[in-house]
Design brief:
Six copies of one chain form a homohexamer. By secondary structure, chain A is an alpha/beta fold. The first copy, chain A, has eleven helices and 15 strands. In chain A, the strands form three sheets. In chain A, strands 1, 4, 9, 10, 11, 12, 13, 14 and 15 form a nine-stranded mixed beta sheet that branches. A four-stranded mixed beta sheet of chain A has the order 3-2-7-8. In chain A, a hairpin with an 8-residue loop joins strand 7 (88-92) and strand 8. The longest helix of chain A is centred in the middle third of the chain and has 16 residues, at 142-157. The radius of gyration of chain A is 19 Å and the shape is globular. The two termini of chain A are 33 Å apart. Chains in contact: A-B, A-C, A-D, A-E, A-F, B-C, B-D, B-E, B-F, C-D, C-E, C-F, D-E, D-F, E-F. Chains A, B, C, D, E, F: Keywords: Kinase, Transferase.
Chain lengths: 335, 335, 335, 335, 335, 335
Amino acid sequence: MGKVVTFGEVIMRLSPPGYNKMKQSHSLEFFFGGTEMNVAASLAQFGLNVQHISNVSDDFVGQAALACMQGYGIDISHIKKVNHPLGLYFMEVGSGLRASQITYNRLHGAFANIKPEQVDWETILDGCTLLHWTGISPAISEGAYQTLKQGLELALSKGITITADPAYRSNLWQYGRNGHEVLAELCRLSTVFIGGVNEVNEILGTQFTQDEEGFKAAAQKLIQDMPNIAKVYDKVRTGLSATHQKIFAQAWDGKTYFKTSEIEITDVVDRIGTGDAYAAGLVYGLETGMAVAETIAFANAACALKHTIAGDVNLTSVAEISEVAQGNVSGRLKR
Amino acid sequence: MGKVVTFGEVIMRLSPPGYNKMKQSHSLEFFFGGTEMNVAASLAQFGLNVQHISNVSDDFVGQAALACMQGYGIDISHIKKVNHPLGLYFMEVGSGLRASQITYNRLHGAFANIKPEQVDWETILDGCTLLHWTGISPAISEGAYQTLKQGLELALSKGITITADPAYRSNLWQYGRNGHEVLAELCRLSTVFIGGVNEVNEILGTQFTQDEEGFKAAAQKLIQDMPNIAKVYDKVRTGLSATHQKIFAQAWDGKTYFKTSEIEITDVVDRIGTGDAYAAGLVYGLETGMAVAETIAFANAACALKHTIAGDVNLTSVAEISEVAQGNVSGRLKR
Amino acid sequence: MGKVVTFGEVIMRLSPPGYNKMKQSHSLEFFFGGTEMNVAASLAQFGLNVQHISNVSDDFVGQAALACMQGYGIDISHIKKVNHPLGLYFMEVGSGLRASQITYNRLHGAFANIKPEQVDWETILDGCTLLHWTGISPAISEGAYQTLKQGLELALSKGITITADPAYRSNLWQYGRNGHEVLAELCRLSTVFIGGVNEVNEILGTQFTQDEEGFKAAAQKLIQDMPNIAKVYDKVRTGLSATHQKIFAQAWDGKTYFKTSEIEITDVVDRIGTGDAYAAGLVYGLETGMAVAETIAFANAACALKHTIAGDVNLTSVAEISEVAQGNVSGRLKR
Amino acid sequence: MGKVVTFGEVIMRLSPPGYNKMKQSHSLEFFFGGTEMNVAASLAQFGLNVQHISNVSDDFVGQAALACMQGYGIDISHIKKVNHPLGLYFMEVGSGLRASQITYNRLHGAFANIKPEQVDWETILDGCTLLHWTGISPAISEGAYQTLKQGLELALSKGITITADPAYRSNLWQYGRNGHEVLAELCRLSTVFIGGVNEVNEILGTQFTQDEEGFKAAAQKLIQDMPNIAKVYDKVRTGLSATHQKIFAQAWDGKTYFKTSEIEITDVVDRIGTGDAYAAGLVYGLETGMAVAETIAFANAACALKHTIAGDVNLTSVAEISEVAQGNVSGRLKR
Amino acid sequence: MGKVVTFGEVIMRLSPPGYNKMKQSHSLEFFFGGTEMNVAASLAQFGLNVQHISNVSDDFVGQAALACMQGYGIDISHIKKVNHPLGLYFMEVGSGLRASQITYNRLHGAFANIKPEQVDWETILDGCTLLHWTGISPAISEGAYQTLKQGLELALSKGITITADPAYRSNLWQYGRNGHEVLAELCRLSTVFIGGVNEVNEILGTQFTQDEEGFKAAAQKLIQDMPNIAKVYDKVRTGLSATHQKIFAQAWDGKTYFKTSEIEITDVVDRIGTGDAYAAGLVYGLETGMAVAETIAFANAACALKHTIAGDVNLTSVAEISEVAQGNVSGRLKR
Amino acid sequence: MGKVVTFGEVIMRLSPPGYNKMKQSHSLEFFFGGTEMNVAASLAQFGLNVQHISNVSDDFVGQAALACMQGYGIDISHIKKVNHPLGLYFMEVGSGLRASQITYNRLHGAFANIKPEQVDWETILDGCTLLHWTGISPAISEGAYQTLKQGLELALSKGITITADPAYRSNLWQYGRNGHEVLAELCRLSTVFIGGVNEVNEILGTQFTQDEEGFKAAAQKLIQDMPNIAKVYDKVRTGLSATHQKIFAQAWDGKTYFKTSEIEITDVVDRIGTGDAYAAGLVYGLETGMAVAETIAFANAACALKHTIAGDVNLTSVAEISEVAQGNVSGRLKR
């Protein structure tokens, strides 16, 4: 089996217990995550061979992050320890009509200080069959952007599948680049697009509508503009409340439109990382040769199940996901 | 900005973790609350200048209560430390169809032993624009009743707005007075009535019906009987289960009937203090000069959001409440 | 009042906190349970005189199990301490569409090593009015099967009411006997059958359908085949998700069909032991002389309320259950 | 074996976790205790037949207290549920040079409201071989004093051994009686005195010195003044810090002075209830016919071991205590 | 009474529970501290009027820090909310021979970004009788250094007492200034020096020895070099292990040498902030007019007691400290 | 660098929090350990290449154990998942004079069911430079014994260093073999002996005395009897209490006696795995070519530091251990 490579920040999440506000708490639960690392961890749970590329802090926090990734089964041999603190964020978890809130401390951290010369892409991409990136990494710093770009260029030249999850976050991008342009540039170096109407509109400056026709049109326009991209995979979320969500997935493979049934999720345990669980489901489908319809059903089920798992990472198995993908959402006790 | 003054018991809540019964627990979570202090704390979160009047125990429990109030930003300079234990209650939290249960230990506590001569109302009401009281305080002891009455008389004479939240609790009122009569007497010393058909029926011995017409009739009758009262603000709750509630607010300003849309709250985190959150919302509207319709929308949203906050006090901000008051109940993650 | 006797394994449940997976946890919450002990504990909460018969480990784990049962008010004077570890199981609690998972360590434990000669049924059944057993016990080991059989034979000869809850668990029954046959044999020694179409089909090898007609037919067939059995009590569960269930109860008393209204349970706190709560409700009805319709309403309400209680045992009171049985499911705060 | 009866308040201890102050805590650990109940619980762990007499609150707090006592194996059949809250105290646990602090809420509780007519001493003392009381009970209220006195008088008339542990607590005795006089009166109704120079001086108004000669003289004087008393058992504590203590025991049997070696206790886990553990050790010696020297060695070891147990009750076994009584204090791991 | 003003970073401490390493933990306990804020908080516990000057993050973390300070009773009206994350540090707590370890994330935080123009020293120092600073603040950033310097210059010109605690931390001072020189400059603007041989050697580049004679010589040299300084207060710590310490205090008032007895602290609960507790003790002595010998005895006792308090802040009272200062270190339970 | 291979059970430890008894607890902390796995984990923390050989349960408990080992950096590629529960033990942690107590559930578990044909020693020992075993493994079952013996024979034939830690545990060895004989047989297949007078006496049936001369004589006798053994490494523990220990190490290299200074450990955090930490220290010395004196100093310091780490595994680093080995035991805070 080939190797999947992911690149991105390893970030620590710190949350008061339950639905507490910080000001009524004395302790915080923590998790290590990061959108690309979440994908890597999920893929490792599925049994794939995965390597994550990043910087961590050269202290006991960074060691704990490394131990966590190792525990997931991720290859950490190319992660560097540097003399900057690990990025982190605080999150107050909402419930029902109260939204969760996040505040970041990541712009001067270990990953923000990554430099292209620290990453030996030649060695890393040797034996790699798929490289995954997201729009968060190039939004952090010039160094992160340049490092990623080098990797994408080399990967593209080697014929490696490149999955782009180019979400645009307006509150990042503080180092001076135009996020829309950078994402467009990097998507042009990619072969699979994970995103829908929002992402296409952000990147191409278009105005497609939020419906099935809009998605088809956006996907076609994207493939037209970015010839390296062959397929577009999207998920559509309806948020009824912080603890009640609905999701379905759709795809355009250049010729045909695919759509899953919608899964309703009540009693959400953890909303973070559900998009990454979807991405990991897609990558698993791509790496194991699933058909498009099967792939999005698996990815959608993975996304749905992640809502029931605490932390940033989808710890469910291929078997659990497949059962939900086939429509069993009864949650019946397994003895 | 003027000063809001609240008067009432500071009481400690002790609850087993989660939905545990006492007999299956070894620890208790505690919160300091008290219906009027909850209003004060919420107003302090909104940025108002608030002073609470009470007695606490002269021991480390009382000190913790004071520190808690100080942390909320409440002025505690007129709270006395006395040689009686702090009032407290135990609560087993229900879920779904199982009701929460409460048992009190408050009738011989610090507040029950308050005496009119301990409270310097002259000084306290200097600069005060609004005085808030509830039906709990006069139900505790003769001393609490007399102390409150002195304050109301002085406040009324000074033209201070007086908000009365005269809920009648039949299991209190053990010291010999007739609760209905006392509440009627004290309401006559007030200018704003927080309550609806139930409260009017309890106080006036009437039989108005639980609907819109009943509310209008009750409000008119009340204003007729109690000329100091200018407006009546009510909220109507439908309890589907311990964790699923619906609420809307209504008001009668002497001429017009106002009503908000109904908010549905699932996954209730904490049911306690939601009425106090409503009252605080009203007081905020009154103090900041909101129109009636805006006031009840804000108060109803405050009440709804309190259901998502652990503890007795509504820790949400004016911004969060305003967003819900304007109809956004999607609970979408804020980064 | 007579004495109820229960026989079965005392087993320890170990669960990660909340909805955590084992691999993301450092601690486990534990409860002592066991399907028949759960019935005993619930009956003791109701004020009945109950004795449980079992083996526990002769170490501090067994002592803790005994202290737990004593705390429930169960007579433990005939429980033996033996030199085998206490049976236990691990459970990862699911939520929403994710199922809970259980893995057992019980087949070489204290109860699995029980022998008929260790149990003095003569003394135990003296003064006993009802003996309760389930299909779990004879599935554990030959010794458990033989010990139970001796007790049933003696009880039947003494005219004691014998309630059978013969659920068939396919993943037990590893010691060589055919479970269907053993359950049939033991049911023939019983006087009340707790189960429905599934259980009858398992035991008699029939194919009755899962509906009201099927239940009636199955119950009639059962009573025909097993003349000692006089009544059949069943509950029907619809699992919408791990945290959302519906249940109703039905019964056949040899002549008439009875059925309760359906109760919907959201925000499930703990799914384990809900069937045992139902059985305990039935036994309570039988021991206190309730009519059939009243009995199943009480049992169904007991089952529903157990979903709101953490742990294996239904800790709610007769008063709480009766209120739900009479249709009050609003969960309104009791001060 | 005969029955030991204890009489006294069941009180709830509430402590912040670890060495926290209340003002820096959000939760409290709780334990049920009470000096006489602690003795009962310890004796039940030793396998004796023990009954405790008290009042508890008629609510879920009282139920939890009863379940706790039942779990210890104490006979609770003569404990009444009354409509007053359970007594309780808060404790901030000190460490090293910082003292622990306690504040009480017990003077209007369930036990303070006990009345002689609520206790059926005739039935209770039937089959009783030893009745144990302490100086705390008569200090709470007139009712507690009168109830105890009735029991002592009846027990003395029946020739039952009566162990008195008449510690004088100056901050109690608020109901009007002179504590010194009451304790003297009740000691005269007792047969075994648990106390030393301090207690004798408090009760007789003497000035004996705090040394071996003082103890002998005090014991002789006491026996001279109170002819029913046959033996005097004492323990001597040297407190080096909140977490470092030394203790030894001494006794006077009317003719001979006995003294144990001193045990040093570092890393104290819980200081509360150590005197009760000592009293339970004495009672165990008396009930099982140990010689005086053996009795005080056992009692002193019990007291020492209690310092290593969280909560008010000594949960160690006869075997563990005997090992320490024989001089093994190495704490070597037992597999 | 006058007002004490403190200036410095408010920093969050995050520690795994107990003695855990980060890599074996899933949660962190947090405390807000900061060497100067710790002094402010301790003084507020003593009843002094204290104001702290700082920046915090404009998010829910900063709000929690503000609420914490308010809860201590500190005046926070001149603390600014800025758009940078709150400084923080992680700490793994050692035990016995294993050292605690700390790693910082503070150099790009809210306080590091403070600017002189953000602080209105004129208003702040109005009514101020004592200004306290430490060597940490000017080590963080040029802005912090300049802001502090402005405050000191103004305070000196107003005749305010200025207490300097100029500890030199070599791992800070990354922004380009020479720490030794800056500390010397700022000490010259101060009137009371808190430090001993180490600090003098660091600042003056001297080589005094670590003994009584060395201290006297160093103090004399310091006063000679820095004419504004009138007195030198020092404490001397002997660390036997992470959990076992000895401390005494000494002082030079320009003419006489003072020294306290040494206090031994076993079972250390929390080592952080003990120096700040000492400084707060000194400031309290200065503000309340204690003699030098009394002041250092109080400060040394405050320092000793802080070792028994979790978190960064000394929460003990003047009464508790005075008792230890007078030699009572027995830790005897206070009921 | 070569590969170290360890063989043995992976076992789960379950302990009540703090110093609680099981009967006063509702939760358990758990750790994965096992004497040989502890060595592997410690070596992985030191940066060595380590592989552990074992069976785990094929369920989510086994998966958690695997994730834990992976997180330590141990190669788990040759660990099998089998259909038997993971071995486990419960431990009540003592303090001071109260001993910790352990009760096992391991004799029918995953490792007890290991069979020689499940382990591919040829592949495993390829590239291996050191194989470590202890006396626990052959005591569990015939299968474990035979599997280990095959590995030792092959390793010896390949000239691999074999470290034997043949502690004799009398409460194991229930499957029929004579433990003394089996250990002697397996030691003869080893090249380094970890043990002292006790172990030699157990294995050879000798009566050497517990002192330096006894150790020398025992070591010489052992080497004489078992020619493959070249060196004997021992540690000597003096247990003052459960929380206060002293240790030193000694060795005999065939010609010379070596001895370290004694380290005193107060405030023990966790006593389990300290012997394994010592063994890991030795293996590290052997693998990195340390001299004997340096090796035992390192191993003794590793053992001492493990007493400060919760759980079974020594998580300290080479740097921390080296500092203690060089005599720094002050536990001074590292910023």
